[in-house]
Amino acid sequence: MSVQYSRLQLPTEYEFRWEGESHYLAYHDLVLQDGEMEVLGERPIQGRDLRDQMTYVPQGQTITGWAKPADRLNAFTVVCFDPTTMEEELQVEFGTVEPRPHIYFQDQELGTTMRKLGRLMADLERPAAKVYAEAVGLTAALEMVRLQSENALRVVKPGELSQSQRRLVLDYIEANLASDIGLDDLAAVAVMTRFHFSRAFKATFGEPPYKFVIRRRIERARKMLAETRLSVADIAAACGFSNGSQFTRTFRDTVGVPPLLFRKSV
């Protein structure tokens, strides 16, 4: 088994390729402006925000791709392991699992192990003992086999926002509902172009960003109308509407009644 930790801050687009006699497991701390990866012979998978995502490729297969990195310090951690040797040493039945490649998947337990391994490898001031790093890497390999046997991999569907992108975008929307949220702002949070973000957002949430933001503003307004005695004008401002008339019109179109009538009904 071998473990590798790499950091890179490249200003330009680059290509990559991996093939070998061992199994390949990578944990990504990468943010890309654009890029894709493919298992040779299969459909390419597009990548953007790859933080907390992993890639697994069984031995005998090849991955290729290209990436245009965002302007940040990117990193990845790789574990390569020989299942035959591991079976002999640990008496683990690797032969009972049909290995299949998985590009950009997530798993909480395996992700935690891979992040720990990356921190160990990255700490040059206090380098971990080789046997400890190998033990953590071995744990990651065993967890990967567990996921394969349980068929429990959660793959990010092509064209959708990743889990980390969803979290960042939703947190940004909630924190800025009172402000003027633009498409450029949301695309920047997800580190995507406006065009790709709009398509990915709709594929993920089932509606365009504009409609989603309006719906969240109305949901907040309903809560404030029911639980506070603030004026309609104050609620409109707190929910990001430019004026009371715009708020009243949008609220009526969405809820079916004006804000004051809704307040009376609750």
From TrEMBL:
**Matches recorded under Pfam families:** HTH_18 (PF12833)
Q: Which SMART domains match?
A: HTH_ARAC
Query: Does this UniProt record's set of keywords contain Oxidoreductase?
Result: no
Keywords of the record: DNA-binding, Transcription, Transcription regulation
> Which residue ranges does the record assign to the HTH araC/xylS-type domain?
167-265
Q: Which GO terms describe its molecular function?
A: DNA-binding transcription factor activity; sequence-specific DNA binding
Quick one: signal sequence residues? none
Note the superkingdom of the native organism.
Bacteria
Its name, as the record gives it, is: AraC family transcriptional regulator
